[in-house]
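Quick one: structure for this chain?
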Amino acid sequence: MNDVEKFEEFLRRFYEKQLLASAREEKEFVGIDFSILDVMYPDLADQLLAKPEDTLEEIREAILNVDLPGKGELEPRFYNLPKSSDLRIRSIRSEHIGKMVTIEGVVRRASEVKPEIKEAIFECPDCSAKIPIEQSGRILKTPSFCECGRKGKFEMVDKVLFDARWVMVEEPFETATGEKPGEITLYLKDDLTTPEMQRKCDPGNRLKVTLILKDMERKMGKGPAKTQMDIYGIVNHVENADIEWEEVIISKEDEEEIKVLAADPKVYEKLSNSIASSIYGLNEIKEAIVLQIFGGVSQMMPDGNRIRGDIHILLLGDPSVAKSQLLKLVSKIIPRGKYVSGKGTSAAGLTATVIKDEELMGGWVLEAGAMVLCHKGIISIDEFDKMGREDQIAMHEALEQQTVSIAKAGIMATLPAQVSVLAGANPKFSRFDAYRPIAEQINIPDTLLSRFDLKFILRDIPDKEFDERLSAHILESRLNPKIVTPLLSSIFIRKYLAYAKKNCSPILTREAAEALKKFYVDMRGLYTGTDTVAITLRQNEALIRLTQSSARVRLSNTADIQDAERAIRIMKKSLQDLAYDVETGKYDIDRAEGGTSSSQRSKINSILDIIQKLEKQFGKTVPRDEVVISSHDEGIKEVEANSLIDRLKMEGLLYEPKSGFVQRTH
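Got it. Here's what it folds into:
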């Protein structure tokens, strides 16, 4: 019995129903479990791995021998290859060329689906004979002669086309920590380019791919051919390999343990203490991060408006308060988490971009950035204030709408970016000044600052009692590392998260909603009759998300009054850190979101009033020194008066007709 007959016997025994169903439904492929072939015909299985192209031809012939309706041509696609065939992309070597292997990676960029010629038919101008030429590679093959004896050029009169696409995948984040991710280009054709498969292989998706490795001449400009080759893969089978919450394996024992912890009144404390347990203190911030990783519930409104459930947190801190460590540790807890540093991050690297790749992709192609690759995960962005202004602005859509839209070089696309952002930033002048608005102390646009649900300041203030405890904690953890072992392992926390996200979608109770409403209305009513705004609707939306997340931690499908109270307490801490105006003793949301606080607005109006009064004495052009002297009588210090005058000049309310003089722009 030859190999074709063996394959035919295997197919009739195990896959006859699937073959008939695929043929009736006019599918172009049949999926085959490699492990079954390996058990029944180990010699054929080994042959498939070692010489896949020849073996696949034999399998195609065997499929044709099975009586099937229609054409009977189905492409065999193999999955579930043995562990020995799994390769890291960076581990691919010349010895693997021509072999069938399995890799896992995240799609970084992808070309459009384009037609390619499978068979070109040429006509002889002398005898009108049709000459079919099978095509392979990227250069069109033409006949050199006809049976009638004619040589020279022949006109192509017909062709058989198929669809094809190139994608570039790189190693997943967790396998490439601390090193440049390996990458490889893949070639997909026929049924692997259907609209459904195209969506599956778009940038940002994580795939497990069965492929045949091939070599290709490396293009290095004009001149003679080079000895260095590139490796690419001809794809045989693709499946989605995203570590989704629904796919985290939870045993019965795990489920029981999760339910016991959820019923524990100290569940929040235990989860908080298990996040960055080596970092002392920061309890309220850790609790806020717990609510962030559990997340609220996204909701689609009847008018089509989608309300996000993901929570964004910004940590603003003095040097050496463990922001970076906290960000790194959080990004490792959940699937598709990623840590990036703002200084080395661009808008293209975070969101998406369009690049030109004529060699393989055939023109302009879409490339996904980190926020798209972290879809349904969390991204920690350190040194957020060090990013370029244009790069920060590019994040506006991703933070609120949770999509990344791009329209460049004829490519118009919207990529999903449902991701929670945990960002860290430092003040411009090394340490925070409680008397100055936040906008003056960090390089973050006002509009971007307002999109964070919670903002906390981590200050390094000398305190003898606290410093003693902190120093003792650090020394003890070095002498005996076991004392900082987390109460809950990261694996268990991941399972807890997966279970909560899968089984709980909390809805606000009437009591919880009333508590949130009362807090919002009371805060808004603190300074009725003034221009001070203590809280806005953005904080109201954030309170709802925090309340839902608090309920999800308890595995409850209803967000009760206790969840609302926890959300209010954390929001108050955030407002206390950034929105409290020390000068006026009031909460002023404009202080926290980068706007002009009411005290600043009052001083600006005082400066303008002073200039207007001095115009009666000096005319339209007023000496700057006189304005500063008069401002002192209004309680405005010299440095601040000069700063406010410069600000008014920048905003176009004042200008300087000559050195040392200012004039209003009427």
